[in-house]
Write a structure and sequence with these properties.
By secondary structure, this protein is an alpha+beta fold. The chain contains 4 helices and 16 strands. The protein has 2 domains: 88 residues, Nuclear Transport Factor 2, Chain: A (Roll); 139 residues, Protein Transport Mog1p, Chain A, CATH 3.40.1000. It has a 7-stranded antiparallel sheet, sandwiched between helices. Strands 1, 2, 3, 4, 5 and 6 form a 6-stranded antiparallel sheet that branches. The protein has a 3-stranded antiparallel sheet with strand order 7-8-16. The radius of gyration is 23 Å and the shape is elongated. It starts with a strand and ends with a strand.
Length: 262
């Protein structure tokens, strides 16, 4: 339950929700049924049913029902880990039992954070130890459990990102990445790691090695470069299901935003 913003309609709200879902996943990893009009407690409502998978084998299912009454928006949502668990009888029995009464005047405004949701918003983070800054997406969360003065980590819905700096100079950037890949290869079958890109890019005025590989349903992008005597490695891993053009550009822009003041 959240407040309706001025000028909003049920259709506009549902369209935003569907757009937010479809932009998150690669087409072959998502399913969206046509919105369905229905009535909940005498109020016009729209049902949206979606599904997504991370391995193209196991699909989940979501059923979200939206309605607007007075100054408030209501969403009644159901999530099923397996699409076969979705029961029409169960859903209908719950929706038939819903009663929406007049809310207390003391509730006031309940902001819907998704009304002004913008995945492209970035924020600046700084590592004081090495004196570099990075522009990262606002929705990423700092992983304080893993972060140290040398290792800066972030997590988001379907992935993780980190930056590490070291003064060890006996490895080239290419060797640094290969050592990282070899370490992964000790935990999984090395032959299952498929390299899809190996090139160079300019990062903060120096040449960086840029390597992308896939392992099962995960895509990893890793770059390494030497700046002012420090070897840096920046890496991101996320689900192939969310490896959209937007995601690729966001990872690229974040890595290329690296700026060192030392």
């Amino acid at each position: 339950m959240t407040s309706k913003k001025e000028g909003d309609t049920l259709k506009k709200w549902v369209d935003r929700e569907v757009k937010r879902f479809t932009e998150r996943y690669v087409p072959e990893y998502q399913k969206v049924e046509s919105p369905k009009e229905l009535t909940i407690d005498g109020n016009p409502a729209i049902e949206v049913r979606t599904g997504n998978t991370y391995d193209q084998t196991n699909w989940d299912a979501s059923d979200s029902n939206h309605l607007i009454k007075g100054d408030y928006k209501y969403e009644i949502a159901f999530q099923f880990d397996k699409k076969d668990d979705l029961s029409e009888t169960f859903l209908q029995s719950i929706l038939n039992s819903v009663q929406i009464t007049k809310p207390s005047s003391s509730l006031g405004t309940i902001k819907d954070s998704y009304d002004d949701y913008d995945r492209s918003k970035m924020r600046s983070v700084k590592n004081k130890n090495y004196g570099y800054t990075l522009q990262v997406p606002e929705e990423w969360k700092a992983d304080t459990r893993k972060s140290t003065k040398d290792f800066q980590a972030f997590t988001y819905m379907t992935g993780a990102f980190f930056v590490v700096g070291t003064d060890i100079k006996d490895l080239t950037p290419q060797e640094t990445i290969q050592k990282f890949k070899d370490g992964i290869g000790t935990k999984v079958k090395a032959s299952d790691i498929k390299e899809t890109e190996n090139r160079t890019e300019t990062i903060n005025g120096v040449t960086a090695v840029w390597v992308v590989w896939e392992y099962k349903d995960v895509v990893t992008t890793t770059i390494s470069f030497i700046k002012n005597g420090t070897t840096y490695m920046i890496s991101d891993s996320h689900s192939k299901a969310t490896n959209t053009a937007f995601m690729k550009k966001q990872i690229s822009d974040t890595m290329k935003s690296f700026q060192s003041s030392n």
